[in-house]
Design goal:
This protein is an alpha+beta fold. Helix content is 40%, strand content 20%. It has helices at residues 17-20, 36-43, 45-48, 50-67, 76-80, 83-90, 100-106, 140-143, 151-164, 229-245, 249-254, 258-270, and strands at 32-34, 72-74, 110-115, 118-123, 169-178, 201-213, 217-228. It has a 7-stranded antiparallel beta sheet. β3 and β4 form a beta hairpin. The chain is globular, with a radius of gyration of 18 Å. The two termini are 34 Å apart.
């Protein structure tokens, strides 16, 4: 079962990397139906496996203490429509939460709630280079406007919202490589320079959606996993390099991968 705890060196990795790392690379969103059984098994770790999430919850609390309202908000619309408790009910959490902060500190996943196509609440401890506090009231298209090669993403935004507020749960994976080894890559934190691949961390985000009110509101859950990059290179190095080598210059710059690409191709040429 994937967790947000770093995968120990040498441990079997619980990921299908061919599903996560696409060749050729594309910014097109690959949302797939996530069965009710898979979703139930996924969120069961909230209550059934407390030992797996203790350090994650501690990290979330530390990020909240450090960043405060840079990682969360809750709109009047979210309050008026009782979206926090409705989301918690869909996640099989049988208790009342007074606000998004209380819910966000109780679960290991980052959480975003959309209502009528706009983001009305979030608690995102482990952001990957973006500021959650700036997304209040925005549509998916507006959130993705700074993303490189975003044409397909923006064009698909309305269709995505229509699908994820329907009957089914959905999921997708995204990945990044960072010189920040912590779970949070919030822009508040300085991104250190590096001179070797061993200093880098591979981040996987497993994004899942659960409809709250059909055709109206939906909750996004984002599960972050971090793995030392050398372990990824041992597991699927050629696949990762091929994907990076198909990226446009704009995507390489957006994902901070220009220097990483040079290092990876340098390592290949030395073999």
């Amino acid at each position: 079962m994937p967790t947000t705890t770093a995968i120990p060196t040498g441990a079997k990795m619980p990921f299908d990397f061919e599903e996560i790392i696409k060749v050729p690379f594309t910014m097109k969103p690959y949302f797939q139906v996530y069965s009710n059984e898979d979703m139930r098994n996924d969120i069961s770790r909230y209550t059934k496996y407390p030992a797996l999430i203790t350090d994650i919850l501690e990290d979330r609390a530390k990020e909240f203490d450090t960043l405060g309202n840079r990682i969360w908000f809750e709109s009047d619309i979210a309050i008026e429509n009782d979206l926090i408790d409705k989301a918690a009910e869909k996640m099989n959490l049988n208790k009342h939460f007074k606000n998004i902060v209380e819910l966000g500190l109780a679960i290991p996943d980052d959480i975003i709630i959309m209502h009528e196509g706009r983001i009305e609440a979030c608690f995102v401890s482990f952001a990957s280079g973006w500021d959650p506090s700036t997304t209040k009231g925005k549509t998916l298209a507006e959130v993705h406007s700074p993303v490189a090669d975003n044409e397909k993403l923006i064009k698909a935004s309305e269709a995505i919202v229509k699908a994820i507020t329907g009957e089914n749960c959905y999921h997708r994976y995204t990945w990044a490589i960072s010189s920040i080894s912590t779970r949070s890559n919030h822009p508040f934190y300085e991104r250190p320079d590096f001179d070797k691949l061993e200093a880098l961390t591979f981040r996987i985000e497993h994004e899942k959606t659960i409809p709250i009110v059909e055709n109206e509101s939906v909750v996004f859950l984002i599960q972050v996993s971090t793995i030392p990059l050398p372990d990824i290179l041992n597991e699927c190095g050629p696949l990762l390099l091929e994907s990076i080598n198909t990226m446009s210059d704009a995507v390489l710059e957006y994902k901070n991968l220009i220097k990483t690409k040079l290092h990876l191709n340098g390592e290949k040429n030395r073999v």
